[in-house]
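ping. complex inputs:
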Amino acid sequence: LAKTTQPISMDSYEGQEVNITCSHNNIATNDYITWYQQFPSQGPRFIIQGYKTKVTNEVASLFIPADRKSSTLSLPRVSLSDTAVYYCLVGDPNTGGFKTIFGAGTRLFVKA
Amino acid sequence: GAVVSQHPSRVICKSGTSVKIECRSLDFQATTMFWYRQFPKQSLMLMATSNEGSKATYEQGVEKDKFLINHASLTLSTLTVTSAHPEDSSFYICSAGSRGARTEAFFGQGTRLTVV
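pong. complex structure:
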């Protein structure tokens, strides 16, 4: 499983766009990149997943360069409720149910 | 999205007793489930992989005799913390995945275990 590196913490203000970058230099050909959000005392919640280029859903965008050695989660206009820990995970979903090894994650603090 | 349910959400037990935590996949069959432990301000630590109909695979450093895992059906895995001690107090989270149909793991809401 590819190791990931993210900033430990980030601060932002309401209404701003937040970009969190994750490095995964050893990503394998069959690996997908998945981002999760976790609030205190809750299980992680799926945000977005991608393999290459750009993926967008109703809450975020995921940018993946051609070499796939990094990825950037973009939250368009954050609110106070987006304060959480964000995890970037890399793995092959077809090797037995997507075993997920969590890195340290990024603690995002959104201020008013 | 798929739903994974954990029960109980909170439990307090006395030292020396055992506690069972259930993890259910409500709308899909989970051939594989995973159990994690999370201490305050830390990331999730994978404890074991639970495979339906076979023995669980434990991560290095996790005592299999202390953390008993049973995955008797495609929708239920249980984690039993045996002879619990205060240092076992933690947040336990399960996740479930299935081969092919879905490409992400779905997490339960977690169980806060406090051993007094």
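The two ends of chain B are 37 Å apart (CA to CA).
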